[in-house]
Amino acid sequence: MQVTLQKAFVKIDKEQCKGCTLCIETCPVDVLKISDRFNSRGYHYTEYVGDGCTGCGVCFYACPEPGAITVYKRGAIVDEEVLSEA
C-alpha cells in the first residue's frame, strides 16, 4: 500500500556510510548526528535524529557515497515499508 508523506525525512544506509560527516556539516537544520555504534565495516555511521528534516537534499549532494542517503520530501508517495524502516 502506498501513502503520502506528511513530513520529510532522511534515511541513512548505515552499511554504506563511511562516517565522513560531510552530511552532518552541511545539514542546515542539524538533524543528523554521528552514531556511537559501528557498522560492519568499522565506521561510526550517520543517523537521522528523527524529526525536523525539511527535505532540502543538501546532505544527499554532500555525500560522496552513492546510495548512502535517501531524502524523502513531504508530499511524496511511497510504499508503507519506507515508513516502517524510517
Automatic annotation (TrEMBL):
Keyword Iron-sulfur attributed: yes
Keyword Iron-sulfur: yes
Keywords: Iron, Iron-sulfur, Metal-binding
SUPFAM superfamilies the UniProt entry points to: 4Fe-4S ferredoxins
Domain 4Fe-4S ferredoxin-type: start-end pairs: 8-37, 44-74
Any Pfam family matching the protein: Fer4_7
GO terms of molecular function: iron-sulfur cluster binding; metal ion binding
Source species, domain of life: Bacteria
PANTHER family named in the record: FERREDOXIN SUBUNIT OF PYRUVATE:FLAVODOXIN OXIDOREDUCTASE, FERREDOXIN SUBUNIT OF PYRUVATE:FLAVODOXIN OXIDOREDUCTASE-RELATED
Protein name: 2-oxoglutarate ferredoxin oxidoreductase subunit delta
